[in-house]
């Protein structure tokens, strides 16, 4: 069993050596781990690639505790593409899993339904709350949809697999001690109260795109943020929360009755009042080449003559 730290590093929590992977062994292992896992009052999130008997054991051991359960989408998609093949279906399936908002999720899942209804039904049956970011609870503060970190841990313990049981215990103990010591020594060099380097680096990279957004302040802590795609967010820096599509009307705005496009080109200038008089005449062009009024440098005959003289001079030099 593994977890992630604030640096997205793998944290080994415990191992169980057994002959087979089944409900009874998972239940026994989780009962041993329960005291460690429940020391933090926050809700637990379990994620797996659907190991045999794991979900049933989790529901049994932690039935009294509020928890979340996720599937690794890469393993789910592996079963999905066994029947539903093609780049288009692959793209739509992953888009549904990676969507952060339910509106985006519905859009991708509806597109999938238009192309292949059976593929749509397959994903819906697999409980989107277990594999799509749009349905993850914000309390977990973790967007992971693939089970990569246990596989990283499997590489760490590769040398242990063919060793006797007593040696596996010794090697695993050494691995945990060395890993925790290195991370503790590294963390001691960080500034107290600052963000961990990985998070700070991610925020710095996002700052590079700040010119793509515009900000409008409502007060000292509430802002409206929008991008070039006209997507808007209400950002509350005091509560460190945001809301999508701020100010978007909940019901469609109806246009005037009998509205239609008038013939001819649309007039861009505003309609002037009777007391404003006629607009001033357009400013006359002045050529920078000859100083005369009525044309610019691009259409100046004097410039053309000068260019021809320069070309003739260069040709004589080359000869």
From TrEMBL:
InterPro entries the record matches: MULE_transposase_dom (IPR018289)
Region (Disordered): 244-282
Positions of the MULE transposase domain: 3-79
Superkingdom: Eukaryota
Coiled-coil stretches noted in the UniProt entry, renumbered to this chain: none
Protein name (database record): MULE transposase domain-containing protein
Organism: Macleaya cordata (Five-seeded plume-poppy)
